[in-house]
Amino acid sequence: MYRHCIYCSADLGANDALEGFPVGRRVAFDGERGRLWAVCARCSRWNLAPIEERWEAVEAAERAFRGTRLRVQRENIGVARLRDGTRLVRIGSALAGEVAAWRYGGELARRRRRHLARGHVSMAAGGAAAAGAVLLALSPLSGIVTGFGAFWAAGELYRKVEGWADRLMAARADREPVHRLGHRDSPTHAPLVLLRAHLRGAYLAADEGTGELLVRVPALAATGDPLEPAALPAPLTLRGARARMLLGRVMVGVNAAGATPRVVEHALDELAGAGSADAYLARLAEQHTTLELPRGTAPRPHRWDLYWTRRADMEGIPPAERDAWLARTVSGRIAGEAYGGLVRGLALEVALHEAEERRALEGELTLLESAWKEAEALASIADRLALGGASSDERG
């Protein structure tokens, strides 16, 4: 197999996905007709592989295409992205039972390790302070606190230091910039940097007329706490692509603690049960799912506080209906309800990434479909000549 494009002489690149055909970062194949092409990244022309090098590679490509969870298909053509980044273009009838999900358990495992490491730092700080308290209490200079009292005092100091360390880390996370708004999207009509703290309390919704995805953020007043960043000055609503972009960034923070492989599998099962990433997003929007409650906000419906009051105002809930509305809304939180909320949060992040990948693949598929028709016409002529006048279809 040649390594350079026969049309523009560019290097076709290499892949690790197809052992029998390691040429090209984008490989197209037609199992029914026995065609195999390496698609040039520079000129997008399809380079037909010699007949003697195709069959095992075509079978391997079919297995790889069926094995991947991220693919899009139309009636006669499909495209998939493999884990090494190779694009596979499959010619032929679409496969049945298409439910895809983006598997990224490795990334969530790395987040979990970082989260646990930060927890160990907090514990070490508390432990060091507690050890110092014990030594001081048992030293000849103390003369007051001894025995059990020393250890009780050390435990109290440990809890306080650990709480301070946790609060400082949380305050640092809240001040991290998440998204920048231009004057058109900003509620103040001036450029605005959204911090993590501003987006605690954001929730999903859908436009009643168009069904377009919305992210709505109620405004919160300043608390006066020096560790807290300035409050969002006015309510905010983002739509469509802007909402998806914001969500993609916010959910990384919501899921910062990562997850075990088992939790990831549960999240993927929940996403698969919805049928598609867009269907799952629509379900969460219909439920007005809250991404993450602000700290200090009551998670139970028996207590009204400023956040729930402003959110009810934003949604136009009449006073007589607010208690029932609050009970329904609290049950739809992502960052609450322990295990269930964690699964929903991970499923949402996966759905956002998968939907973005699918839109990219759909656009790529439109271009590939027209290129395939041209390449198939040339391949039919080339194979007929190579087989001495009879087409590969007639001999197959």
Q: What is the overall shape?
A: elongated
Biggest sheet layout = 6 strands, mixed
| Ends distance | 23 Å
Secondary-structure element pattern, one letter each: EEEHEEEHHEEEEEHHHHHHH
Task: Report the count of strand segments.
Answer: 11
What proportion of the residues is helical, as a percent range? 40-55%
Number of domains: 3
| Uncertain stretches of 5 or more adjacent residues | 96-103, 141-145, 390-396
Instruction: Provide a count of the helices.
Output: 10
Arithmetic mean of pLDDT: 76
Strand order of the largest sheet: 3-2-1-6-5-4
Describe the structure.
- Strands 3-2-1-6-5-4 form a six-stranded mixed beta sheet, sandwiched between helices. A three-stranded antiparallel beta sheet has the order 9-10-11, with helices on one face.
- It is an alpha+beta fold.
- It is 47% helix and 12% strand.
- The chain has three domains: 111 residues, no CATH class; 63 residues; 178 residues, no CATH class.
- Strand 4 and strand 5 form a beta hairpin.
- The C terminus is likely disordered.
- The longest helix has 49 residues.
- The radius of gyration is 29 Å and the shape is elongated.
- Helix 2 packs antiparallel against helix 3 and helix 4 crosses helix 9.
